[in-house]
Amino acid sequence: MFRYPKALVTDGHGQYMCILGCESPSRWMWKSKALRHEGSHRHIELVRGLSVQGQSAPSEQDEDDLMPGIDSDDLDADIEVEDANASMSFHSPVIGISGPALFDDPPDAIYDDWQSPLADHNMDDPAESHWLDDANPFPSTLFAGENDDQRVNSMTVDATDSDSDCGSIPSTGGDDQPLSLFEDDTEGEAAVTEPLHNGAYWPWKNAKEAYFDCMGAFPRAVFSEPELNITRWFAEKCGVNDIPTVRQIKMRRKDILKLAGGNPAEMDGKLGNIYTLLDLKEILAHEWANPLVRPHVTVYPEDAGKFLAEPSQAEKWRSEVSGALASPMVRYNGKDYFVMEPTLAVFGPNGEYGPVLPSRFFIRDDKFWARVQMLRTHPAEAVLVIDSRDEACIELPVSTFLLPYDELQLSYHYHGLPDPSKITHVARKGSNWTTVDLQLDDLDVPVVAPNPLRAIAAGRQVFSVPLWLYCDDTSGNVSKKWNKHNSLLITLAGLAPKYVHLIYNIHFLATSNIAPPLEMVEGFIEMLKDIQGKGGVEAYDCLYGELVLLLPWILGINGDNPMQSEFASHIGMTGRCFCRVCTASKGAAKETDRLREFMSVGDTRTTESTIAGIEAQLAEILRGAPSNASTFATASGVKDKYFQHFADILSEACAEIKEKRAQNPAMQGDAYLKETLKKLRDSFPADMFNPLLYVYDLNVNSDSPVEILHVILLGFVKYFWRDAVSRQTNETKRILKARINAFNVDGLGITKPRGHTLVQYAGSLTGRDFRVILQLAPSILQGLVPEPAYEAWLALSRLGPLAFQPIITDKTKYLTRLEDAIFDFLACTALWNTQWFNKPKFHSYNAVIRGRSVHSNHLAPSADIGISFSFMHAVRHLISGGYLRDPESGELRRAGQAILDLGTDKVFVQLMGMQKLLHVSDAGEFRHEPKSKPVQWSTTRAARVFPKQHASVPTMVQACSCAVLANEDTAVSGGYVAYLHRNAENSKEEVHIGRVVEIWSEVRRHDPECLLGFLIKPCSLDIEDTAPPYRMPRLDTRGDSEVWCNWKVRTTFACFTWMILTRLLKDCMAAISTFHNCAAHNCSVTQTKPVIQERRRRTRLDWEITHTPETEHDRVLNLAQLTNTVVLDTFRGSRRYPGLPLETVLERAIANHQEIIEQGSSHPLASQSAAARRGQGRGRGHGRGGIQPQSQGAPEATGGSTQGRGRGEGAPSRARARGGQSRGRGRGRGSEALRGAPLGEQIQDWQTYVPETNSFI
To answer: Is 336 helix (H, G, I), strand (E, B) or coil?
Structure first.
């Protein structure tokens, strides 16, 4: 409601008083006047004064708000040392000022209402919110007191014992602990010690035990012991007897965990912390034995040409990673072929064959292929030579392979070849195969044949298993109050994209509120290397029904920007070298050079350069100059938090020696200092650096993809939206809210947004909200922000869909468009205000972890949560039908049939988060129009296009309001869709846009087979004919042609003067978003919308946008839509904005900024915010004072006059009338001054505000 609620007090009866010391501090005001008072010049100045005081010593929370997503630990004073020449305002910290804009504001100001100490900060950090997570319909607890961190439970027993490492973290103790903690005390209850039973509920004893135990495995509905006791009490009162106690369930759970759990183990990290880590071998073996997972996992890279939709089709897996990891072997026609192992293959056009050395295998056109190097006999010796001359490395289908190595070893004499195990040289140059002409070099890496993996595999297939490693921090409390847990997670990179982000397929490894992320990663890396060294993990493959070996490796590292910087041993985004991927720096002396560095790509960082940077810091510390290490880190951007632990110990020892030198002569001299530090260093582990730097084929700098949630949605969009909203006054906020409420979201796949929420609580929004704002911004912000700011929004709306595009049909074109979109966005931002570049961002599973942490007793949180997730993993595997070895018989088996049947229980599936995994397509589903009745087909408009005599059309049909398309978009009647249309000239199918006129179905039942189809009116569209100022194509729905998209039959025939075409529903490709061209038609904002409360219409009216019926045909194609981006690619024009080269952008951006500073409020850009803040209208003034003659108040509204009646100052000569009525023509300041005013007249051309005359020029 209020911008700064802490500046006002209320009497509890609807009146408010300002406590900041304004002109009338003791006056009570009604809410409407209090809102206007907040926008007064004096009040805003006082608020800003308090804001400056509050920002002089920002708290840790303030720092996080200033740099969202940046850990305060990264704000190292030693690292932030800048050159004296780099002190210009370009890279000084950005602190937004409180809005709205005032005429005397700094012309280059950036606004942010949510940094004021008087603003309402009662909100969650958006960085902790994940818009990809599904809404949780189940409460994580049945008990909640005023403090969510303390469980209200009369059964809780205070713990007298606590772990000193837990610090101030409270311990709930007693019975209120997770079910994963086992106690030996079973007094009064019989422990369940019987063997596992072979019944329908195996491995549980009976139904009651199984179902009661499974209640502890729901990811988002975590039950504490008191809640389970309440459930047990309720069941007993309902007549259900013999329900096992909670303690019996806990004792029995040991067997379940041993059988199917994740085998958590306690780890003692090298930094001195203890944490619990789940076993990667168990997780992978269970995934391969899970029939719900294994069929969707890709294990080979794929050459898909220019198409890219999965990690297996990207260059990293297909070309960059060693073939020994990416594709160690293939099985073809019952024969096993391994990489780096000679095989016999046909490679000539006339059937020539010979030995080749495969370096990697991949899939092309659903067939196995191999990249091979030719092997030839040494010209002078009986050994093989690798031919690496030009065109000697070729690609062959595996179908051309004749003999694998084991068979070639037995028959090489028959083929006239030397021993295939003897490969000694590589030929790099030479046109003739002679010792004189050839350049023969020794092998860089000896070729060991047979491949050692062949012996380890012993006839089993070996599959590559790339992993996504993810780390994030989350609070261990429901309220997210200072109980930070760092968590490690993995997902199978080979999973199909639609499955990889499901909670079901995200695997927990470890969490700790003590051990830092890299210390836990160290344990995972050791586990990973151990598996790779032993040749893989043995697992039962339920797809092939045989034992296989799994070879895991890290494809990439995911996380927010601070976490990825930590994993890359990078200083962070607040450092001078702010980019973890390249060496871009903001330390240049000239502003032009700094801006150029920011907008260009620097030299690529490598693992080798990072290690060299850390070694240089270590060398400085060992020679007794630890302060130089910080200087080196600032200059290079390399800062290793893992190494920092040991560096701090060495630095403290160095300082201690230097302090004691004066009293102890033996300590004097550099030799003693260096020798002591060297001995101390030798006592440390050999590997003191980031363990990820030593992972084979992993580049921590380039293999950490940009996390678009935090960079785009919680970065650019959040900053821009806060600035846009902070610029608005109460009047312009009404316009903004009305535009949001009026926006038709058909085609966007989102719920209808609420303008009040997005505007009033702009500082408390989450990623999901910013995803909505990004798609609405071009339509709703037109005319409400300065033109350069609006152009930056448009550029961001062009970049966003490319970043979120899930499928790339042409990699070359896509990369070109993406690079152009990034440059245009940076250029528009620079031309708006170079101060934005002070924010470095311009170059799902947390709720589950938090739920488990809340139910931990906090004595050993890492172990408690690890065991809890181990049990979740066990239940998930059992109810999915995963295969296990029976501990008694040793045979493979699955859970009992009653347990498997839980997969068909809709409630249980939802509680387990498996609904999307088991989801069946809704294509063809429909909903009838409310209160519609069956009608005869011949009476419908569609009958003219689809004649009655066609056999598939029933006599009676019923109208539908919406139907689900093949891609599961919902097309609504009156909405817009993209469909395929065959061009009559070249017979090629082209994508067209059309409006859905009618949807018809059969009457008998709601069945996809009963859907008849869509009647669509094509829209005329010219890609290059964009609608200003939106820069998006204009649609025109006028025309006399219509198209019928049929669900069942494809036919083509003509009738009357209509263009008639019947299409399959699959040709109706996607739902498309459009919006009305309000800018061209000056659509009005009116207070005519009835307010609905509690499903009742009230007499109070709200603001809405009114479109005239005769302009409804003029639509704009919303290219900011984040869904169906591949379909919309067809309609993206070639024009770019601003379309300037880099040097021109730099020159203009700096000139614009200097001009703004020099001219101040007289500059057009500076005056835009002032004009936007005052949507002036010519209203009937209602003054306070004596009877006054008709006054000549403020001038007409910007762009025209508005004859609405509003409250204003009606006194002449700027003196405020105070004695009585005044019917003068004054400034319309109230809401009714906007009634009926076209948007283009309220805020149109930007004008300059002159405070001396209280007017605009």
So the answer is: strand
